[in-house]
């Protein structure tokens, strides 16, 4: 497991963290470190222990065992010295009743002694300047998520925790939020977040921890995790252009599946296979799919449905 050394460059240290609820162990000996300025993802199926782990690191929930250090401080019991240095955006955002977007940010900022003028700066950062005078219940789901992040960042925290910030958003809103999350990190903030979207984690995270049943199963950069899977490359092309029987004779073809109008060839030697297709003038309509973080996730956690 890749773990940075403790010290000034480390924002978070988690060692052997445990949380139990009766006979259920929700978090079972979790350990990881997060570097300052890093975008760190915690991934896992429903019930994996992601949110509980995040809540203990944030200081919202007391661990039963183990140690947490955030910016050199213990977050539990609630640490007044640490709170102004952290920003938290929860799965379900709660706003003050009947306030506009500008008023919401000002209200959160006032808790940290932030001047009211900071609200307009944050509205610009999250792309909500034109919604400044709109009450939160009139905002779209994506706009509410951006407002929630603005409230978490208004006091310029060193570390921000985001729990599934793009859940239930449409694809366009998700991609817009990606740009915001990249901007947050570029400003020097350490970002720790959970998500169910594997493509998102692959695009945004410097490193990810994959959890299941309360344990960390793997921790590394997305690219290193994918390389470690040693998965086959899949080459697909229209079935009419390459019948299954012919595909099976190609050098480099390990497995062949035909159906639904296409022939899919699994190979661990894609260069040889592509060259053979080129020599036979069969490259029209070809698509190549390498392994992704989703393949790693399913390999580690299984494919069964999680309620």
TrEMBL record:
Residues 12-238 form the ABC transporter domain. Its main location: membrane. It is a peripheral membrane protein. The keyword Cell membrane applies. It is found in: Cell membrane. One of its GO terms (molecular function) is ATP binding. InterPro entries: AAA+_ATPase (IPR003593), ABC_transporter-like_ATP-bd (IPR003439), ABC_transporter-like_CS (IPR017871), ABC_transporter_ATP-binding (IPR050763), P-loop_NTPase (IPR027417). GO terms for cellular component: plasma membrane. GO terms for biological process: response to antibiotic. The keyword Transmembrane helix does not apply. Belongs to the ABC transporter superfamily. This is ABC-2 type transport system ATP-binding protein. It comes from Oryzihumus leptocrescens.
